[in-house]
């Protein structure tokens, strides 16, 4: 570090529950180093390797978008020319206006998801713009997160769950479908401390993840069968007279309906469906019975199967059935971020939405873009905060949809991604290091603010300014579109919350994090200081809402017929956060697919071989890694790769079906992917 270098505070905005505080080394206008900082006590100076290795290149590398561009060659050719911001906005205004004139405003579709998780960059002025325009609405949650969120709220409502740090007081912790070292890093420290105090840790995961090697038990469950294990445990605990009937009477509703379903699952089902031994099942039941304070940490892995919502609900419900609430260290580690006083409707301008505007499920968009029977059809879309080619199921169909010459596609991103290359006009966005933002995490309960550490690179602009300029071009001049970023930060949070001590959200110090507790300062303990925020005011083991909407008042297992030899699962990567950093050197080159040695032997495949994984939707090339960390009959490959990693120009997402959906919320079923393998 030179004598002119500065170390400045920031926050990681990526789609991760931890939302780390950062220290950024800046030399001139260049970011040269990214490290963790101590500002957030939960992340406490530790940050994942992918952030430290990839962020400087992400900001300053050769894939960075620095100027507006328009397409000059065939779609997908990569042929673009630099244009001015005025020209870019004029083109967008002209093409959007022409489509609206012919088909009405719902012909426009915003196509965004969860690139940055800052409140401003993630959803503020952009939502106001599209709401005012009258564009079609997008239900984004089914791509990821909605199933887990609805599973939680069906039991507890919008009440904050257990903060992860409280698990140090537990004596049994279930890490269920959560690869903590890859996608929830700071939970590993909590688990280590709890074990040092005598707690048992059980990892339930289709792969022997790194945390499983530092656990007291690893349950190598078959993908998508978690609901069978959880319901069979409920029935087994009832047989042992180990349910807490006093707690159930006082704090739950729907017990009889729930247990009627749970009793239909047996130890034999666990053996044949979950592929878990009876001995391991009974050992887990023994430990649950013995636990005085049990905590359950759930990731998003479970929600990726047909019975994902049921699996999550059943895993969470074990806490209520055993009375594992009401004490420090007992509870479900989820949704502690609900303690942050967000005022999302104000920030996003929900009052601007025209009544009756249609809503599309984000998982359906490839089909909707090609559906000429829609009234009106979609004739223009804007992709931002998203890389759909790299993240959606049925990748080839998404590419086909975006390749339509009669579809006007605007892109806005930091880097030239597989999705941006298919656009007609590209707008360069700032990274979060180049603009103000405020952050309320979804996996912990700290509120943080960040200021720019470098000026915008090239002609890039923050999302907020891009959409202010678009709003002005369309003549939207109301106060909602004149708000500064400072105004937006103050509109993002309830500044009257006691823990802000009278400080405006835009004035929160950037070198500290505010740990949000309850308004009276109490820690968040479900069924003690926190009450379930359900219609009944109790934990709802039977959900009338889910019964009415989806027919799943209680959890149940619905297997998807497997028509090929292997089930392919695609969890989080140690090299990328979803698809972010997919263009970095560490993510380029062939991705691995892991296979159990027994399967490799049967197929005559060797470790390190180049293989093709295929089904009726496509073929993808991988490098084979033979390991018993993966179950027989199950393949594992990390998600988020870009097309250049495979000789076929397709990634694992090309193999994932878009038509199979989760039991609740009509979500994407990434793990219901069935494939065969051959030597390339």
Distance between the termini: 47 Å
**What is the tally of helical segments?**
21
Mean pLDDT: 96
Unreliable spans are none
Q: How do the strands of the widest beta sheet line up side by side?
A: 5-4-17-16-15-6
Question: Sheet bearing the most strands, described?
Answer: 6 strands, mixed
Shape: globular
C-alpha-based Rg, rounded = 25 Å
Pairing-aware structural class of the strands and helices? alpha/beta
CATH C-level category of the largest domain? Alpha Beta
DSSP strand count:
27
For the record, the count of structural domains works out to 3
Strand content: 15-25%
Helix content: 25-40%
CATH topology name of the largest domain, in short, is Rossmann fold
What is the name of the CATH architecture of the largest domain?
A: 3-Layer(aba) Sandwich
Domain 4Fe-4S Mo/W bis-MGD-type: 5-62
Keywords: Iron, Iron-sulfur, Metal-binding, Oxidoreductase
GO molecular function, one term: iron-sulfur cluster binding
Protein name: Putative dimethyl sulfoxide reductase chain YnfF
